[in-house]
Each structure stands twice: as structure tokens, then as C-alpha cells.
Amino acid sequence: MKRNIKQLISQMTLEEKAGMCSGLDFWHLKGVERLGIPSVMVSDGPHGLRKQEEGGDHLGINDSIKAVCFPPAVLSACSFDRDLMHEFGDTIGREAQANDLSVVLGPAVNIKRSPLCGRNFEYYSEDPYLAGETAAAFINGVQEHHVGTSIKHFAANNQEFNRMSCSSDADERTLREIYFPAFETAVKKAQPYTVMCSYNRINGTFASENPWLLTEVLRDEWGFKGYVMSDWGAVNERVPGLKAGLELEMPSSGGVYDKEIIAAVKDGSLDEAVLDQAVERILNIVFEYTDHRETQEFTLEADHALARKIATESMVLLKNDSVLPLKETEKVAFIGEFAKKPRFQGGGSSHINSFRISNVIDSISPDATVRYAKGFSADDDVYDETLAKEALETAKCADKVVVFAGLPDSFESEGYDRSHMCLPGCQNRLIEEILSVQSEVIIVLHNGSPVEMPWLSKVKGVLEAYLGGQAVGEAVADLLYGRACPCGKLAESMPYKLSDNPSHLSFGDGENVRYQEGIFVGYRYYDAKEMPVAFPFGYGLSYTTFAYDHLRMDKSDITNSDMVKVSVDVTNTGDVEGKEIVQLYVGDLTDAARRPVRELKGYEKVSLLPGETKTVNFTLDYRSFAWYNEAIHDWYAASGDYEILIGASSRDLRLSGKIHLTSQRTLPFKVHMNTTLGELLTDQRTAGYMEDFKKKLSTIFAAPSADGRRDEDVAITEEMNTAMVACMPLRNVVSYGFCSKEELLEMIDKMNGR
């Protein structure tokens, strides 16, 4: 059905139009019955529907419907699998149609700046490329069913402390290279129906009333077509927000802000055309859903099976000293209450009322020999002597011990940040005690963010299950007993300790949060510092092995407009079927700007039978090589060599090659009195003007002739001479009498093309 939305808006009263720009209640948009405009419902849904019953509030004190809890983003991103994420989104879209939900509030793509952020379990990655590709695949899957997504939280919402008022203070390059690209990729590749603005301010301006953010960048540059909604309660000033590009205020403010919009139109401070445009954007999405209603069954059982598949494909095997997979003939001890009561999702607005929850004990084969001891509670940090004694006796009698450790719900949640990276002390203590009586120890972790592992060097195996969704027990059992081959890889680095994190000294500030680490977030920092980490970004083991060979590039010399095709052969050299995630990183060798030593610019997941070889293909464009240059407010790649690196993680790089890029863009260069001679000499546009000055300065700072003096008696070396000339401000040529100030100013005008 083709609708004339503009004509419909022309029939609305000013009050009705203002009313469309705020919620009816916590979960519904307003309708206009006389014009056939329906009221539609939205719901949390990044990893499952959280449709609230009538009267439900934002954080879900009132029960939501029974639904399927899929693995949260912290785990699903570790799949590195666009097809799987599309299937995930497709299922969420069908579920939304089955429950008459027009928009699901997700995915959340905020960057994991620090492992302390209480909401990290909802976010995909520390890497913007991976987060953007993952989000785009998910969004496309959902929206194939004409159900909208609301990608969130735009932007730089990276902590929970004072999230509603703090200012994320970062330079434009940092925002453009780290905190914006996931949103940009999702908009350009998937066009989410809505974008949710964040609570925080950005460099002093609230995201909800930031025209640069919501209009100039989001719409004018990236081409976003839907509507922007506020996070719940994120509106600071409604009329400035509407002008800036915030169409929908959520939830209802009881008409308070509607009245402000009406008054602003009446007194002329708000152009009614701005209001009309906002209503048009909202109605386009409302009718996109209502005009394409589908008859769908809420297939809980089938969707549970998909939740199991996603969890199995995403969990990361971190360590395996020939201790996994377990055999059914082995006597195995399962220790820790998480084995019976797994933590599988985070707390807050994404909490799903799961229709079923599996644990690992109920999911193993009946032929397996397993004894369970509680050891410690899954809910608190209390060392219980009786439970510990039972656990130790159970461990002594086993061939192997699996400890199910993790963070209790109270340790991480929306609304507050963690203060440390530690597991509960009772868990670490019991693990150490078990290690004193048993050498074959495996740890399974249930956590929404990295934890410190003081026992890492002593245990034989570690499986990172993160928060695995409601099918977590089945997925863990499948992996422990080899019914599935591990293939997930880390979407975030795991530092040894909290103080290693680059944001450690500025994370969690209240009023102004300085992003002083700039673009060096996650592996970009650790790799540049050559800092040891517990496990690097992109890392993950398998029950088989893979060989990389025959790196090929279809071009060795490129310009700005060229696309480069890269291919590599990957072979399964083990004896079981497995999947490998092949990663492509690009390193800038030009020294034109300070950049990370390598950045992820491509990944593909490939399934291989034993002995099978497949070719994996990548395509790189100009942005794959570029950095954001604040002088031109655009992406720029300098002329020179770039390294193409293929590997199994950011630190396991198997193959490399070089590409030479010849830039077709020349950066502007404005010469002034304090421009250095070095800058002028290295730019072909100005080098000719400087040769005479260089010769004269070299004479002044020249090293004395070798007339029998010892090296230690020479005050000025050739290296010092070169450095002094290079760093000399242009104004000094006047000080040294090489020309008058008037002559120098005339020369500067010529160099500037005036």
C-alpha cells in the first residue's frame, strides 16, 4: 500500500503532530485514530524479546512475556559470522511479528573502552569494524520482516556511572575512527529503521540535542533515513533536541514536552516544517511495519535450538593442554553452582524472561561419568568450609575436574560499573585448593566481561562461555565432550590485570570523562605497546589445526579509487571437522600519522573437513587504508607502503604482503612563521624555497672538522645538526640574519599561493 504521508500530516492538528513526537507510555507510540494512524509497540530485543505486559516499566519489575534468551552480544560477536548473525536477526524479526512489536531496541554497538563498563555484556566488541559488520548482518535479518531495529546508543556511551549527565570528551579523530564506525557501517549497509541517541553529552553537548551528531554526521554524511529516538529519559531540552534531529522522545513525559513543542511553533521559535519532517519520519516507520504485518508463530522450541547453535559457534576455547575434549569413560568432577545454575544473561533492560534454561549437568550424555559438588554459590562471594571440603574430596577422586566459575549477577549490570576485574575471592581460593590436589583442571567461565585469572598458568584448560543465553548448558556440554568443535574467537582483548587497560586512569570519571587514550583502544593499544596480554583480540583455539598459505593480491600498486582483492588458502591439518576465522589486518608503513600497528579490516569464517583446503577472499577499499584527518575533516591515506597481514588473531599473523598506495589527494599546507624547516623541506610544494636557508643553517650548526679531536670532545654531531635544522621554526631565519622579516613574509605569501 502506497501512502501519502505528507497529505496525512497536513490533516493533523498541531497538538496531534507534537504528540507523535513522544511516547504514549513506556512502550507505545501514540496513534491518531481519526486518521487511521495506529499506536505501535516497541520492545527491548538485542538478544531476545522483552515485551512488557500492560503497565510494564522500563527495567521490567513487572514480568515480561516468556521468550527465548539468545546469547548476548558479548558472546554472539565472538562467532565472527555474518551469516549466523543474519539468521539470528531473521529469527528476532519473526518473533517480533508474532508478538506485534514494531521495533526491537537493539543492537547495542558501543565500543568496549574498558572491561569495567557494567553494560559490556550487551556490546559487541572493542573493534569498530567487527561491531559494525556484526550489527549490519543482524539488522538486515530483523528488517527483512519489516520490523525495525534501533541501533544504540549513539554515541560514546561507554560507562554506566553518571551515564545520564557525564560528558564523553574525545577529539574528532577518536570519535570517527573508534566510536562512530560501527554506527556508520550499520547505517550504510543495513539502514536501521531507528537510531537511539545516548544519555551522555559529547564534548559538552547532550547527544539528544546535538545537531552535528544527529543531523550533519548521521543524516547528511551517512544517509540515515529513519527516525532518531531518545534512550529512555535521555531528553534534556525538547525543542533544541527536535531542531537537532531527535524525532521521538521516549517514554512519555505526560505531555510536558509536547506542550513545549506546541508553544515553540506558536511563538515562531520552532519552524513547523521541522515538526512536520519529524512526524513524517516517524510515520514512515510506523506504516512500514503495520502495512506489512505477517502471520508468524512464536516458535519457542525451534528458536531455542538456534540459541544453542549460536552459543556453540561463539564460545571461545582459551587454553587446552591436551585435556579437552572430555571422554565419556573418564571420571569427571563438575564443581561450582554455575554447573546447575548458570549465569546466562546480564541485568537491566535487556533481561529476558526465558521460557527454558539448560544447565550443563542435565545436558551431558547419560553414559558420561560425572559427580557434582556445589563448591561455591553462584550468587555471592562467600567461602563455605563444608562446600569446599566436599569439592576437594570430589576432585581427588576424579580423572579430571571442571570448575564452573563466573561473575554473580550483582557483579555487573546496567546502571553501574564494576570496580575491579576479579572473580569472587571464594572462587579463586577454591580453584587454588583444587589445583593442590588435582592437576587436570579445566575452568569454564560465565561472565559478561574479562576477568583476571590468577590461576591461568596452572590449569590445563579454559573455556570462555561468557553469557551463553538460555541454551548455555547444552552448548557447554557439546564443546566439553567434543560433540562440537570450538570455533569462537575473542571480540575483545583480555588483559592480565585492570591497570593494563589504556583507559585505566580516566575511566569512570563523573562530569567530564577524558578519552585520553584516543584511538588506542583494546588491541590497538596492547599491540602498539607490545604489552603481554592473557589472550589477544581475535584469539581462539580449536580441536583441530589450520594452515595458511598462498597469500595473493590482485594489485600491488593502487590509488584512492582502487579496490584490492586479497585471497588466501586455508587447510584443515587436523583430524576433525572445524571452522576457522581468518582475519585480515592492515598496517600503515608510511609514518604519515601516529596509527595502531595494525587494524582489523576483514574476516571470514570457513568450515573445513580434515585435509580440506578452501580459498578465503577479502576486498579492501580506500577506507581500509585511511585514517581520519582532522585538518580536512575527512578520511585520508598517505602515499606509501601498507602491509597486509593474514592471521588467526591480532598476534598470530601467518602471512604478509605489501601494497603501495599513491594518494590522489594532497593535504592543505598553510605556512606560517612557526612552520619548521623540516616540514617545508619534506613537502615538494615548499622544499625549493628552503634549500638556501638549509645550507646556511648547516654551516652554523656544522660539526667541527676532524683535526685530531676525540669524539667525546665534539659538541655538535652531524645528527644534531640535521635535527636542529629540521626543527627550526621559519621565524629564526630572520634572527640569524638570512633575510628581513618583510622578505620572509613575502616568501610565506608565495608558498601559500597568494
Structure, described:
This protein is of the alpha/beta class and 754 residues long. The protein is 29% helix and 19% strand. The protein has a six-stranded mixed β-sheet. A five-stranded parallel β-sheet has the order 1-3-4-6-9. The protein has a five-stranded mixed β-sheet with strand order 19-27-26-21-22, with no helix packed on it. Helix 4 (82-98) runs parallel beside helix 5. The longest helix is centred in the middle third of the chain and has 19 residues, at 272-290. It is globular, with a radius of gyration of 29 Å. The model has no long low-confidence stretch (mean pLDDT 93).
What layout of secondary structure does this protein have?
Elements: H1 5-10, H2 14-20, E1 42-44, E2 66-67, H3 73-76, H4 82-98, E3 103-105, H5 128-143, E4 148-154, E5 167-169, H6 172-179, H7 181-190, E6 194-197, E7 201-202, E8 205-206, H8 211-221, E9 227-230, H9 238-244, H10 256-266, H11 272-290, H12 300-314, E10 316-320, E11 331-335, E12 353-354, H13 360-363, E13 369-373, H14 385-396, E14 400-406, H15 425-435, E15 441-446, E16 461-464, H16 472-480, E17 512-514, H17 523-529, E18 546-553, E19 557-559, E20 564-572, E21 578-588, E22 599-608, E23 613-620, E24 627-629, E25 634-636, E26 640-647, E27 653-662, H18 677-681, H19 687-700, H20 718-726, H21 732-735, H22 741-751
Parallel strand pairs: 1-3, 2-12, 3-4, 4-6, 5-7, 5-17, 6-9, 11-13, 11-14, 14-15, 15-16, 19-27
Antiparallel strand pairs: 7-8, 10-16, 18-20, 20-23, 21-22, 21-26, 24-25, 26-27
Helix pairs in contact: 2-10, 4-5, 4-12, 5-7, 12-16
